[in-house]
Structure of DUF4397 domain-containing protein:
Amino acid sequence: MMKIFKRAFLFLAAGFLLGACEKNAIPEVTEPVQDGAYVKFFFQVEGAPRANFYLDSKKVTGVAPTTTDIVLGNLYGSVYPSNAYALVPAGSFNMSAIDTVAGAGTADVLASTSVSLANNKHYSAYLAGTPESYEVFMVEDNLPPADYTKIWWRFMNTMANMPFAVDAYAVRSAVPATDTKPAEPVEVYELGKGLDFKEHGPYVELKPGTYTYKVFASGTEYDPATSTSYIQQSFAIASLGRVYTTQIRGTYAEKPKAAQIDYWRER
């Protein structure tokens, strides 16, 4: 039963069985993919129209249609698929982010790039930049080996127009002593330093706990454990065997919005 479920998930997650033909007449693949590459697609441009990713002329992302069967694209801040990868054919393609105008018979290519996807490799693809200057780029996700005793985390910078590179940290909160366990001090994990737009750090092993993810301007003076950062996010992590990425996105502002930092699970 589990084998059947896994096959069904890969088929659906591929993003190729996305419903009937659209009025924009762009063809879609409707048969299952036996092998290929694994890709997550991110929509990181604040103010961008709804869009979908395509490999050549084949749509590989999607949003459930409305009750009137209007086919939608993905909004800023979304990812496809969530907490998984789409299985797509391996090979060389033109990867495009397209604003498909439902019912109007037109499609506006926001940005595109040439990509080469290898069998059984994992990638993250991004629509980034600004509404005045869109950009599509892709990075390979060199996932750590599967290990259900560990948690792994990395940082990715997709915030456009930043006037500085960034240093990123995961700061684990102190744990008070209990009747059975001694106290644990604050711990600081470096996720990458001097990271410019479109750059990321390595996957770093973390312990379960409550963390604050902090991003500082490179070259400034700060204490990762105590200083106020440019942008930050706090939450607890407990599930072993998981792999995550924290990202900053949108367009740089002196006072960023809370929505400009978020995290997603690769595994």
